[in-house]
What does this fold into?
Amino acid sequence: MRSWRTPVGVLLTALMLFPVYWMVNVSLTPMSDMRKPPSMFPVNPTTEGYERVLREQLPYLGTSLLVAAGTVVLTLVLAAPAAYSLAKLRPAGRPTLGFVLLVAQMIPGIIMALGFYGIYVKLGITNTVWGLVLADSTIAVPFAVLILTSFMASVPDEVLQAAKIDGAGPWRSFVSIVLPASRNGLVTAALFSFLWAWSDFLFAATLDSGGALQPLTLGIYRYIGNNNQEWNSIMATAVVASVPATVLIVVAQRFVAAGVTSGAVKD
Amino acid sequence: MRSRLAGWAFLLPLVAYLAVCYAYPLFTNVDLSIRGYTVRSFVHGGAPLVGFDNYVTVFSDPTFRTALVNTVLFTLISLFCQYTIGLAAALFFARGFRLSATLRALFLVPWLLPLIVSASTWAWLLNSESGLVNAVLKGVGLDPVNWLTSPDWSLVAVTIANIWIGIPFNLVVLYSGLQNIPREVYEASALDGASGWQTFWHVTFPLLRPVSAITLLLGLVYTLKVFDIIWIMTKGGPSGSSTTLATWAYELGFGNMLPRFGPSAAVGNVLILIAVVAGLLYIRTQRRQELA
It folds into this structure.
């Protein structure tokens, strides 16, 4: 029996994703049609918005990729060893650190941004890519430690015990047993740190708005701030900025779902 | 002994990082809020201690009341709508059907898009002259609304955009909560002759309560933080009508040519206090569930 739920589900999803469709539609609409009543389809499709993105936004795009990749590396380098320690070596003070990490996730970004700004101005390191990477990593590190800890905790203790008897030290066990076994956790942590750094606007606007290397979110913001408001270019940039999220949904769906529910629902 | 040392060695980078990238900025924030900074002393140092002056300035500013009321309204209405719609969608998807997994994944898209993308898309949808929403209103014979430029509607506009962004998170978490309710419970309820509506109110909803509590508390923590959407759509305006504590803090510190870092940091510290109370509630709720 075919369920009535399938057509209704398709309809609801279409409704939910309508703004996304609208973004694509507007990105293909010529500027001359922009002030006429909106049309549901790009009747005279144009690529002028995208051509402008290619002309003007490529450097921003490069910076975004660099910042996001840097954030992923920094986050994993910090989070993976710490998660291993919390999950398997069980040092004293573990509950306190777990508590600190939970609270850290709740601090509003604007407060971190102001604090970082104060420090960066004093040290003269505003408008640097690595400064932005450091700030962006604060969005991801607590989450990455918590999710990796739960993945690494499921590596059987017997395996680690056996490695120890064979003479493997903690470092050796970490690199050759725990890391490969928690590959899925590493992928999830990497995906989310990439996405968050890629999407960041607040840190970029406060710490990196005067430099030569600015991320794509600031590129969009520049366009919006312009008074001539060329919405097809704005929406074309928005489409380009949405590519990583779309790719994630298509190729890494299960990791995304795992990331959303981690911490909220216990198994 | 050796393994305890190793345990700390592996943790050391993280602890150092937390000190430099969390404790130090937070300390800087407190320091900013109790000193009388000017742009000059911000760069060169030497700002005098002024105690709670900045807090007094902030609390006696009429914008504080507006920002606080807006924050409460924005947060409560967002949470209520996100949760209700998310739960309805989760119940709909809970009975698996053809394409259900794919459609559920597509529902996640709004949550994953960069906020600046969602915010600028909604800004254009709600544009007074050329936006689709007003075109549709006109089409059904209603008056167009100045969503982003009227003080009566700007908060509504940013709340709508924020609800849209928050539905996926609620859907995914509540859906996985529904999956954890044993099937036998529903069978027993059906045997007792309960209707679908009765089953929901007397079986599903009570059993889902722990997951609901966590979802709402996490949502609360996220919503208090919201800055990008409001700033990009309305900049908190017109004339403060959609200002929240988060956007006000940013506006004071970075919004114009004459930054007021002290008051900005003071607003930030008020916000952090609210967020941490919500956070502690969340942690307590989760602990209690782990014990149960």
